[in-house]
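idk why but the lab printer keeps eating my pages so im just putting this in chat instead. protein + magnesium ion:
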Amino acid sequence: MFGKRSGSEPVFRPPVEPVARVAPSAGARDAAPAPPVAAPPPPRVEKPAAPQPAVAAVKPVRLATDTRSEDYYQIKSTIFNALIDTIDLAQLAQLDPDSAREEIRDIVNEIIAIKAVVMSVAEQEHLLQDICNDVLGYGPLEPLLARDDIADIMVNGANRVFIEVGGKVQLTNIRFRDNAQLMNICQRIVSQVGRRVDESSPICDARLLDGSRVNVIGPPLSLDGATLTIRKFKKDKLTLEDLVKFGSISPDAARVLQVIGRCRCNILISGGTGSGKTTLLNCMTAYIDAEERIITCEDAAELQLQQPHVVRLETRPPNLEGQGQITMRDLVRNCLRMRPERIIVGEVRGPEAFDLLQAMNTGHDGSMGTLHANSPREAMGRLESMITMGGFSLPMKTIREMIVGSIDVIIQAERLRDGSRRITKVTEVIGTEGDVVITQDLVTYEVDGEDETGRLKGRHIGTGIVRPAFWERARYYNLERELADALDKVNQ
Ligand SMILES: Nc1ncnc2c1ncn2[C@@H]1O[C@H](COP(=O)(O)OP(=O)(O)OP(=O)(O)O)[C@@H](O)[C@H]1O
Ligand SMILES: [Mg+2]
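predcted complex ->
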């Protein structure tokens, strides 16, 4: 086909220049060409056969892969260029990943031998991995994508890649060769969902094969090269027990949440960006009975429900001609015709708020959703404005009554200034007084100070409520003793 497996055809054209000595140069990586990701592969041009270098005469080169020095990047780019000159990328693209890797491995090994680059087996393996990532995968992002401890990857142009680990954002030493390589990788990511990013449509949402959520905004809107934001998909989703272990919630407050989930309260999870709303929603779904029919509606499927009877729905953006969009509202309205017992909305951000509240009000108890807001009170304000902006000309009083009649509990998630994520409020919605919605906190989180490492110290405390408004509901599900006991402990 190509390379040395192409039968009669000359397979692999030995690169001309042997690497005699690596001269460290700051601009070496920038000089390398972009990997052949989006551009159509050039036709294979027969080049005049280069004289085979006399291997023994070439001065050996030492490779420092561990430090990823300029030398490393220069050697990599030399080998990479030789590889690109040699293989037929169109044919490579037709191979399955394992065969493609094998093909690249053989050719890279030959290039290394001809160029007399001296390196250990481990170094060679490392270089090969890197080159395969460039040709077949997401290039420099691959090692970050392979880690499960990273929450977000933020690429601000070719030279600055940040990650969030353990709640802290840190700069990495990962770099792209240049903006063109970064843009090519963005292109490769979004082409998987049938989209393109270019100057005429520089904004795009996409998803990686592992489920990670991706946003790309390219030039000219992004001034310093393409900006790529990836919310990593966590393979092992956190559970409420994990959140207790991390101190995000106290064990007793977690028991209150369990009762809230099991007795089918309608729940709204509120919080800022990246505060852990979706994670918490996923935790709360663990308390849904296995017999229930659950329908989830999301922009990008992130939830991982364990129950057997789940229907997962996902919105769809418009295509390049602006056609075919399916909004969250379309999904929520449709799922009312699908005999749901619980409806879970990944994120409520528009007129679907009205449909979700109606569903909650009309026999779909135990429905849940998340929403961006900084406090439970603000969350209710946001719901009101989503409904009014959705064009429903209802009096404010009616909207508020609707909210009160639908939402039982609001759980507030926050990312605190030390990077830790906490559940800072469990609040119930109890009624209206005149025009005003009345809520009461059951549990709040109080910060006491910080320890010597700068980590915030605090605790979850009860507000003294022993009979919340959903008491009767808990009784109906035979959970009132569990609730009383948990609230007792929280209030101590
Ligand atoms: N309590 C927690 N403790 C530690 N890490 C957490 C906690 N909650 C969430 N995380 C991690 O934080 C990251 C963001 O969480 P999540 O996606 O749930 O946030 P979000 O509020 O839904 O974000 P967005 O606003 O972008 O939708 C994830 O990697 C998740 O694993
Ligand atoms: Mg989310």
